[in-house]
Each structure stands twice: as C-alpha cells, then as structure tokens.
C-alpha cells in the first residue's frame, strides 16, 4: 500500500541543508529503483528524492549521494528496504474500500470455509504490500468473525508482506493511535482492540486472536517468492499503480500462478488489469477471478 512521494510534500521539496543529488546519482537511483522495485521515477521527482534520502544519508553518516550509490552497488539487498521506505509513503487504513470486505463477509469466506470443511485443505489469504498492517488485520477481523459464526476448525491464515522495514515493524507491533481506527465500527473496536492506558493512552492494540491469524514477513514482489502453497485470495491494492507495464504483466502472471483455481485478486480503486493479463475475469469493482 505504498504511494510514491508526491509534489505536495513541501518540507521534502525544500531539501534544505545537505548535499545535492547530481544527475549521475539520480540516473543510477532511477534505474536501481526501477529494476529492484518496479517503480518509475520521473525527472520531476529528483528534488523530492533528494529531500527524502538526505535523512538516510544522515542516519548512515555518509558524505553525499555518490557514497550512498556506492553502498547500493556493494550490498543492494541490505539497503533496499530502507530505500523503498524513504521514497514511498505508506497510505492505508482499516477497511479501506469496504466493498471488498463486504464480498468476503457475504459470499467468499462462508463458501471457502464450507468447501474446506467438506474437501479438506487450508484457507490462505495474502496481503501483498501490507504497509503498517491495517489491511491484514482488517482481513483477520472478518476471517475470525466468519470462523466464529460457522464454528469452523479449518486451518485459516493470512500472510502479510511488505518491503519497508519500518512498515513491517509497525505491523508486527499492531499498535495504532485511536484516531486511526476511523474505519472500524464500534462493535469491532470493542471486540478486536485493547485500549492503552498510562503512557499508551490514546493508542489501541489489536487483539491477540488477530495476531494469531496474521503472519508478517518481508518480501520484494519483484524478487523470488518463497511461498510454496497457493492462496484463495490475494490483496494487492494501491501497489501496482506506480509500476511500469512490463512489471505489471509479470506480476499478474505470477499472481495467477500463486492462486487456487478460480481464486480472487483484489486491486486498488485506481488500478486495472485491462490489457495486462488474460488469466483473470473482472467480476466486481477491482475484483478479479482467475479463469481456471
């Protein structure tokens, strides 16, 4: 759920007090980010990237962007997550695009749980680009509720992955300011969150039951995927919008390979698979079903 840095980041645009990002360094960073993250940085993003990466230079005690580029050349995997965190902004919320959750509650989860009970097997959902955890924990809420309603004993879990170390750390903690719970109704707040006290006043932590259902792991969508089993649904919302066309095509083909027959792929409200894949049918608002 990462969004590229935007022109509205005035503080970053200023980029005051630090080395400048030269043309050669920016050209390297653009190519590096494109190859490693699938994100295309336009010429107009140079000042913004400079402002964001200045913080990283200070943290690493590096003298300039040339030294940072050398670091990426020497050990790209070690720094890739931090770089992705610097040039992206995690934009997410609980129950964002509620129609997706409505479909899960009304149709998909009851059907999947019944099918798994009859035929065996496990239920798996993947939140690809989970950001700070709001999406997988919202999925866990509706999954836990469906399990409670049906009395199911099916092995059901949610995998949550992201490239950003900071986002993953926040997701693992599962602690959020109360004002971030705007998408959660009162009944779910009472059922699935524990209010903080003392130093944690104004914060809420997700219920241990939700944490049991969610496994959080680092993953670069453009690199190798270690998962062996297939998924009933993949949520990849507001992630591919910044990828170039070839990257999207490769990613959708890989998703098709990771989905069960007739499995579901959920995209963000401004994303589309039109002209990018023949493996899926559009069956709802940014909801796609694998054809076979």
UniProtKB/TrEMBL annotation:
Pfam families: CheR, CheR_N. It catalyses: L-glutamyl-[protein] + S-adenosyl-L-methionine = [protein]-L-glutamate 5-O-methyl ester + S-adenosyl-L-homocysteine. InterPro entries: Bact_Chemotaxis_MeTrfase (IPR050903), Chemotaxis_MeTrfase_CheR (IPR026024), CheR_C (IPR022642), CheR_MeTrfase (IPR000780), CheR_N (IPR022641), CheR_N_sf (IPR036804), SAM-dependent_MTases_sf (IPR029063). Residues 20-292 form the CheR-type methyltransferase domain. Coiled coil: none annotated. Its EC number is 2.1.1.80. One of its GO terms (molecular function) is protein-glutamate O-methyltransferase activity. Gene3D superfamilies: Chemotaxis receptor methyltransferase CheR, N-terminal domain, Vaccinia Virus protein VP39. GO terms for biological process: methylation. It comes from the Bacteria. Keywords: Methyltransferase, S-adenosyl-L-methionine, Transferase. The keyword Transferase applies. S-adenosyl-L-methionine binds at residues 90, 92, 96, 135, 162, 220-221, 237-238. Methylation of the membrane-bound methyl-accepting chemotaxis proteins (MCP) to form gamma-glutamyl methyl ester residues in MCP. This is Chemotaxis protein methyltransferase. It comes from Luteibacter pinisoli.
């Amino acid at each position: 759920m990462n969004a590229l840095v935007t022109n509205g980041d005035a503080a970053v645009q200023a980029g005051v007090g630090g080395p400048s990002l030269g043309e050669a360094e920016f050209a390297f960073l653009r190519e590096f980010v494109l190859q490693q993250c699938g994100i295309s940085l336009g010429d107009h993003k140079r000042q913004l990237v400079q402002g964001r990466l200045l913080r990283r230079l200070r943290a690493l005690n590096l003298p300039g962007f040339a030294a940072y580029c050398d670091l990426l050349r020497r050990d790209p995997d070690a720094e890739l997550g931090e770089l992705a965190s610097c040039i992206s902004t995690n934009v997410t919320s609980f129950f964002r695009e509620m129609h997706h959750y409505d479909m899960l509650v009304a149709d998909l989860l009851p059907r999947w749980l019944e099918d798994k009970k009859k035929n065996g097997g496990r239920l798996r959902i993947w939140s690809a680009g989970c950001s700070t955890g709001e999406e997988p924990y919202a999925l866990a809420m509706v999954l836990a509720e469906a399990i409670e309603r049906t009395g199911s004993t099916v092995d059901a879990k949610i995998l949550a992955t992201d490239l950003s170390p900071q986002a993953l750390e926040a997701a693992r903690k599962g602690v959020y300011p109360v004002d971030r719970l705007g998408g959660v109704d009162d009944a779910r707040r009472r059922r699935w969150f524990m209010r903080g006290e003392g130093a944690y006043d104004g914060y809420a932590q997700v219920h241990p039951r939700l944490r049991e259902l969610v496994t959080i792991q680092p993953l670069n969508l453009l690199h190798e995927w270690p998962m062996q089993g297939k998924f009933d649904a993949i949520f990849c919302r507001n992630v591919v919008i910044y990828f170039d066309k070839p990257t999207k095509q490769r990613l959708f083909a890989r998703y098709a390979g990771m989905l069960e027959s007739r499995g579901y792929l959920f995209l963000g409200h401004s994303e589309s698979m039109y002209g990018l894949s023949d493996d899926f049918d559009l069956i709802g608002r940014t909801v796609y079903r694998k054809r076979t």
